[in-house]
Write a structure and sequence with these properties.
The structure is a single chain. The protein is of the alpha/beta class and 220 residues long. Helices cover 52% and strands 13% of the residues. Strand 4, helix 4 and strand 5 form a beta-alpha-beta unit. It is globular, with a radius of gyration of 17 Å. InterPro entries: CheY-like_superfamily (IPR011006), NreC/VraR/RcsB-like_REC (IPR058245), Sig_transdc_resp-reg_C-effctor (IPR016032), Sig_transdc_resp-reg_receiver (IPR001789), Tscrpt_reg_LuxR_C (IPR000792), WalR-like (IPR039420). It comes from Streptomyces mutabilis.
Length: 220
């Protein structure tokens, strides 16, 4: 299926570079590119889309505010947003995720990683770069919840021992390949366990799964 994409970045060369990377996959179609966050919502009203690739630092309004405005008219299940940035501070990661972003990738990702991240997010999952995951985990460990969320903890009781092991490793910042090597299973098996765990605990993506894990007191 074709994925219709909007690129939002204030630098012409960045937008051109992203377009070049997306040409690797004929199913990814760039419908438009904008240089200002203020233009995003009006553009979406006239152009049906599946995904927005959003920069953070832009004139007018930043990517976090633009994402927040998108979510007032377009729910996450109807329109996906991936934040692309060179900044991986935990406050930016958290702000983007809380505004309604489905993923957070660094602009330094390879073309294959970008395409894989888009495929993951459009398929209903979430995508976090290693640096963004580390920032999120850093924030969680620096600011642990004052009390354990018992309701969340009860949700984790539904996980199998294998699923629970995968969840804890995800929360430690490891990717599927790293978890697979540690557990002596395939990356596909790891992904399957993670997806099942997300379904059981009600997490919409890996970022929320990490958050739930820490709030339930299941520290790596």
């Amino acid at each position: 299926m074709t994925t219709r994409i909007l690129i939002v970045d204030d630098q012409d060369e960045i937008r051109a570079g992203i377009k070049a990377m997306l040409r690797l996959d004929p199913d990814l179609v760039v419908v438009g590119d904008l240089s200002d966050g203020l233009q995003v919502v009006p553009f979406l009203r006239d152009h049906p889309l599946d995904l927005v690739l959003m920069d953070i630092r832009m004139p007018g309004i930043d990517g976090v505010e633009a994402t927040r405005r998108i979510r007032k008219e377009h729910p996450p299940e109807m329109l996906r947003v991936i934040v692309l940035t060179t900044f991986d501070q935990d406050d930016i990661v958290l702000a983007a995720l809380r505004a309604g972003a489905n993923g957070f990738l660094s602009k330094t990702v390879s073309p294959a990683e970008l395409v894989a991240g888009i495929t993951e997010v459009v398929g209903g999952g979430g995508a976090l770069s290693a640096a963004a995951t580390a920032a999120l985990i850093g924030h969680m460990t620096d600011s642990p919840p004052p009390v354990i969320d018992r309701e969340l903890l009860r949700r984790f009781d539904a996980l199998t021992p294998r699923e629970r092991d995968v969840v804890v490793l995800v929360a430690s910042g490891l990717g599927n390949d790293e978890i697979a090597a540690r557990m002596s299973v395939s990356p596909f098996t790891v992904k399957t366990h993670a997806v099942r765990a997300m379904t059981k605990v009600g997490a919409r993506d890996r970022a929320q799964l990490v958050s739930f894990t820490f709030r339930a007191g299941l520290y790596p």
